[in-house]
Design a protein that fits this description.
Blueprint: E1 50-51, E2 56-57, H1 59-68, H2 86-105, H3 109-114, E3 116-119, H4 121-124, E4 128-129, H5 139-142, H6 150-171, H7 173-194, E5 198-201, H8 205-221, H9 227-242, H10 248-266, H11 273-297
Antiparallel strand pairs: 1-2, 3-4, 3-5
Amino acid sequence: MLPDEPRPPTDHTPRPDGGAGPARCYRHPDRETGIGCSRCGRPICPQCMVSASVGFHCPECVQGAGREVRKATTRFGGQLTADGALVTKALIGINLVVFLLAAYVLKPWLAEDLSLFSVGPQITGYPYGVAAGPDQWYRLLTATFLHVQLWHIGTNMVMLWVIGPSLEAALGRIRFLAVYLLSGLAGSAFAFLVAGDFMNSLGASGALFGLLGATVVMFKRTRTPLGPVVALLVFNLVITFSVAGIDWRAHVGGLVAGALTAVGLMYAPREHRTLVQSLTVAGMAGLVLLMVLVGMARYGG
């Protein structure tokens, strides 16, 4: 008999009345059966049979097989997906929709309401924007999806498409999204922390610099030649500090946050990966909050 063929029942479960006779289902002793589980051989009735590629399995063997199968993951613990760039595409879509609304449809009030705008009481006599308190802190995030100039949205989305898919495929969707959002928030928080009494900033550049920093870490971790990504990073830093009107604070804050978050995600030991990665994300979120609170202390908030 071949190993995968249905095996006759070997467990002659006693009859309820104590008599002898045909095998009975091990889960329903009152039911006679001539079929056994093709894996363990225990007798099973029609209600307990689970169809298999060959023969039938009992419910316990089916459950045990499910526990034995491990889901395939990326190198850094993310779930493998058919579309490794889905989150990147979604982020590009959100940015484009917000751009169209802010630049052409709901102009100018939407941009004014979503930008990283903050004024201290030393200028107006009362704080406004982020400095006004938690009810305005949403600007720390919304500003990272806001663009009002075509060249700005164009260059940022091209950059996101260039570096996003490979990083998303390596990290998985959730981890990639965490790096993007934390980098954007950290860039906004750092800008608020060092801006002084007045600031007005917008754009996804802080989040993109975070992805650049994470890509450098990924190349280092996977022993990929660093030349191309370092050249791209240096080029963007040169533009950051040489072109007037660019908020270097958001760029630097996002870059550092993205790199640090990536270190925690990519160097986490396999046996404690989930714990270390969770603590990394929580720690970076806590650092963002700390920067905002320290910035608020300037205004007595």
